[in-house]
Write a structure and sequence with these properties.
The complex is a heterodimer of chains A (292) and B (282).
Chain A (H helix, E strand, L loop, with lengths): L5 H31 L16 H8 L1 H32 L6 H9 L6 H11 L6 H7 L16 H26 L3 H9 L4 H12 L1 H17 L2 H6 L11 H11 L3 H32 L1
Chain B lengths: L2 H29 L3 H6 L12 H8 L11 H31 L5 H13 L3 H14 L5 H24 L4 H9 L4 H9 L4 H17 L2 H6 L7 H10 L7 H36 L1
Helix pairs in contact in B: 1-13, 3-13, 4-7, 4-10, 4-12, 5-7, 7-10, 10-13, 12-13
The chains are: A mainly alpha (292), B mainly alpha (282).
Chain lengths: 292, 282
């Protein structure tokens, strides 16, 4: 066969800019950030070795622990509630619903919005003076108060509310795609055996969705750990620093407080958190995939 | 299923739809109200005397920090940033995906796996070196710098999309073309391109949504004149000079959301496909 001699190197040439970009801007930059986190850098990079001092600064900083705790609260509630609502809606939609496409489109549209838009909208609705609180009061429940947005103990839960609103439809779409992939012969056989619908779902369909559960959890965990814009728009990390998350901590220390070293250390912690969540989940997903 | 539980099913689904739509309704209703009406009326009531004053202020008069020219200049920034970044990252991704599936060489699988890391990292871990690099390259505070960043960090996703799509194209097809003497680009142009319509749609829509909606890169790398609309919206909401104008905030939020909403309405099918493909594989 005639092979152009060029065809031996053209594919490599095509891939080389991407490879180079990945090596420099992903791998190289991660290494630089890790290196920065071990230096005396403050306002400007300063390559004087500081050992683990920046990590000590980080772990001594109450604000960092507040942000870590908030991420744990937000992340777990956001993932669990989005998945529960998503699965519930997907199962309901799977019952040969008229107008399914239309409903699906409505549930999923928030995913097309920027988290800044979502945050802005919910900030207005959760506003204690003129928002939801007042509606319920206008309905006659005059003692009703709903001040989570400005309540330091509750502000992080408003992020959960807005986050779930945005992402539950997405979980629904993934679960629905999974449900459509379940072998209908097995379901028919179970029906013949006299199993009722809830039993079929509990015993057969939901267990077979295991890989989908992993995927949804993975992507939601990823959204949660990176969450920055939603919190910025909704609470700005406030009141005070009550709803700070690691992404905001990193941004503030790196770009407004002139603490590059501490900012880099917090970024490295975020990377480690993502790895700690992703690697076991991906491993489990790969395992459950190969077991089938 | 009997009629009663069927009815219950539809009732629950309708309630969920109302819940999903409520914020959009509140935003729309608020944006057409006057401040007096907002103060006296109910959050969810329709505007009694609709006015577009808030919309025109959000578009061309509201303050976003020191500038008071509304969202318009930043909306244009977002367009100037998003369109080139989407096109460039998609085209490179298509060629990458093609080379990785039909022109395999030693190490190409490893290369793909290595690229995938770019889909997972939290971008915080590259922000500091990138800020210095953009400064050194003279791209700081420019739309060009933002395009560059979005292309670089979009490549992992676009390559993934095309790679997973082209894996399904039979290798015999490409081999036959090579026997006939067609080269790398000829095969791409004549054989792959004609069947790539859907994946181009998926990829373009995914990238458009991601880049338009981005806030992190915009807030870190843009100067006051090159800010994308998401950053300007956040500034607009935070800039409080005297009375808080909720109607202007809501009009501005809808303006910032309009392009991606429009894409969703027109091509929702591809949007969903991109989400599921990106999620399941990424």
């Amino acid at each position: 066969m005639t092979v152009h001699s060029a065809d031996r190197w053209v594919p490599k040439l095509v891939l080389s800019p991407t490879l180079l970009a990945s090596l420099i801007f992903v791998y190289g930059f991660i290494l630089i950030t890790v290196a920065l986190s071990f230096t005396e850098s403050r306002l400007l990079p300063n390559w004087e070795w500081a050992g683990v001092d920046r990590y000590a600064d980080l772990f001594d900083n109450d604000r960092f622990w507040v942000s870590a705790k908030n991420l744990a609260i937000f992340g777990s509630l956001f993932i669990v509630i989005s998945m529960a609502v998503g699965l519930f809606l997907a199962i309901l939609l799977d019952q040969k619903i008229r107008g399914e496409g239309f409903l699906r489109a409505i549930y999923l549209y928030p995913m097309a919005l920027s988290f800044i838009v979502t945050g802005t909208a919910w900030k207005w609705m959760l506003n204690p003076g003129l928002g939801l609180e007042r509606i319920v009061q206008q309905w006659g429940f005059t003692d009703f108060t709903f001040d989570w947005l400005v309540n330091p103990d509750k502000a992080i839960y408003t992020v959960v509310i807005a986050g779930v609103w945005q992402s539950a439809g997405f979980a629904m779409a993934l679960f629905l795609a999974g449900l459509r992939g379940v072998d209908s012969e097995i379901i028919k056989a179970a029906q013949v055996d006299g199993a009722n619908l809830p039993t079929i779902y509990r015993r057969i369909i939901i267990p077979s969705l295991r890989p989908v559960f992993f995927s949804v959890a993975l992507i939601l965990a990823h959204i949660a750990i990176k969450s920055f814009d939603l919190v910025m728009a909704l609470t700005g990390g406030g009141p005070g620093t009550a709803s700070d998350v690691p992404a905001i901590f990193m941004y503030q220390f790196s770009f407004s407080r002139g603490q590059l070293g501490v900012g880099a250390a917090s970024a490295v912690m975020m990377l480690m958190t993502i790895m700690a969540v992703m690697v076991p989940l991906m491993y489990a997903e790969a395992k459950s995939g190969s077991a089938r | 299923m009997n009629a009663a539980s069927r009815f219950f099913l539809y009732a629950v689904l309708a309630l969920a739809a109302l819940y999903a739509l409520a914020p959009l309704w509140v935003m729309l209703a608020t944006s057409f109200k006057s401040l007096d009406e907002i103060r006296e009326g109910s959050l969810i009531a329709a505007p009694q005397a609709p006015t577009i004053a808030a919309w025109s202020k959000a578009w061309s008069g509201a303050c976003t920090g020191v500038r008071c020219e509304g969202l318009k200049p930043f909306f244009i920034n977002s367009l100037l940033m998003t369109i080139p970044a989407v096109l460039i990252s998609t085209i490179i991704g298509a060629l990458n995906g093609y080379a990785l599936t039909h022109w395999k060489f030693r190490g190409s699988e490893l290369l793909f796996t290595a690229l995938l890391l770019g889909c997972f990292i939290p971008f915080q871990v590259v922000l500091l070196p990138m800020a210095r690099t953009l400064g050194a390259l003279g791209f700081v505070d420019s739309i060009f710098g933002l395009i560059f960043v979005h292309v670089v960090y979009g490549l992992a996703f676009t390559t993934l999309f095309f790679r997973n799509y082209y894996v399904g194209v039979p290798g015999e097809l490409i081999k036959a073309a090579r026997v006939d003497g067609a080269g790398f680009f000829t095969i791409f142009w004549r054989i792959l391109m004609p069947i790539s319509g859907p994946i181009f749609m998926v990829c373009v829509i995914w990238q458009f949504t991601q880049i338009w909606n981005d806030f992190l890169f915009g807030v870190v790398f843009a100067g006051s004149d090159s800010q994308p609309v998401t950053v300007a919206l956040n500034n607009l909401v935070r800039t409080s000079t005297g009375v808080k104008e909720y109607n202007v905030d809501m009009a501005a939020a809808i303006i910032a959301a309009l392009p991606t909403l429009l894409v969703y309405i027109v091509a929702g099918k591809y949007f969903v496909r991109g989400l599921t493909a990106g999620a399941v594989k990424g």
